Amino acid sequence: NFDIKKERFENDIICDTIFYKDVIFEGLKLNNVDENQTNENIMNLAKLKIGNLEINPIELTTSLEDNNLILNLTTQELLDSFERIDIKLKAYPDGDDIVASFANTDLQMFSSNWNISPSNKIIYGEKKLEISNFDLTDGFRSIRVSDIEKKGIKASLNNFDFLLINSLINYDKIEFAGVGNVTVSKQDLFSPSFLNVDAHIPEFTLNKVNYGALVIKAEELSNDSLSTRVTLNRDDGLLLDVDAEYVRSREYINGTIVAEDLPMNTFEFIIPEGISNTAGLATAEATIKGTVDDLKMDGEAYVEGGTTTIDYLGAELKLGEEIFTIS
User: Torsion over CA of 200, 203, 209 and 211, rounded to 10 degrees?
Assistant: First the structure.
C-alpha cells in the first residue's frame, strides 16, 4: 500500500514454509511500514525448526526513528529453560561507535523472573568492545557479561544448579546436581584467540551422593583441538583427575585418568546394565586413547573391599583386595 499524501508505504510478505538445509521456518509474516522518516518492521514466526530443535512463536519488531534503532523480541518457551522473553534493545551511533542498551519488560528463564541492570551499556567500534553494568539476576542467581580490556568478552554464571545438565545430557542412569559458578571467556574478539571455560561446584552430587568439589577447566588450543581438566576432591580422600585433549576433526581423545578411593558403585552409573549392589573402593591410573566411539583404556587398578552382583546370574562376586590390569 502506498499513500502519497501521508508519505506512507506499507507492504506485507507471507510465507507458509521456508526450507534452508536443516532449518525450517513455518508461518512467516513480515510487515514493513515507512512513514514520515520513521520505519517499522514486524516479523512473526509461528515455528522455527533447527534439526530436532523446535522453537515456538517469535515476534521481532524493529523501528528506526531519526538515528535510533529500537528492537523488541518477544517469544514464549523459546527453549526448555527460557519460558518467556520480552526484551528491548535501543542502539544509536556516537561518532564511529555504536552505543546500545537493553531493557527487559518480561524475562522468565530457568523457572524464575529475571531483571537486567537498567544502567547497562555496550559500546562497539572498530576493534573495540566496551560492556558495563550488564548484570542479570533473579535475586539468587546472576549472569554478568563484561569486556576484557575492551577487546575480549567474559560471561559469568553464579549460583547455578547443575540439575540443568540432566536435560542436556539425557542419560537416565545419572542425575547431576550441585550449585556452582561457570565462567566463559574469549580474550580477543578481533584477532585470533581461543575460548576458555571454568566451572567450580563446591558440592557436586551424582544420584544424590556427594562426590566433593568439582572443578572443570577447558581451553581451546586451536580451531581444531581443546584441552580439558576435570578434578573431583572430597575430604575423605576421594580423588578423580581426568586430563585429556580432544581433536574435533578426528573425534579423537588422548589423556590420563587418576582415581584414588573412588567408590566402586560409581561404575553402576557408567555400565548400562548387568551389575548391582556394588561396593568397595578403587585406586587407578590409566591412559585413554581413541575415537569417541572406540575409546580404549590402558592402566592398572587396585580394588579394596570390592563386591558386586552379576544380575543375570544372581550371584555375588567378592573381589576382596586385588590388582587389575585395565586394557
Answer: 60
On the 0-12 / 13-18 / 19+ scale of CB atoms within 10 A, 5 is exposed
The string of pLDDT tens digits covering residues 168-220 is 555 566 777 889 999 999 999 999 888 999 999 999 988 788 899 999 999 99
Half-sphere exposure of 29 (CA within 13 A, CB side): 9
- pTM, 2 dp: 0.78
- Do the beta carbons of residue 300 and residue 324 sit within 8 Å? yes
Can you list the alpha helix ranges (DSSP code H) found in the chain? 164-169, 267-270
How far apart CA 242 and CA 95 sit, in angstroms, is 50
Distance separating alpha carbons of residues 76 and 231, to the nearest angstrom: 38
Give residue for cell 539425557: 170
Query: Rounded CA gap, 258 and 241, in Å?
Result: 5
pLDDT digits (tens, 9 = 90+) for 242-272: 999 999 999 999 999 999 998 888 777 766 5
At 299, is the secondary structure helix, strand, or coil? strand
> Which residues have a Cβ under 8 Å from the Cβ of 65 and sit 6 or more positions away?
37, 38
Total number of residues shown for the chain: 327
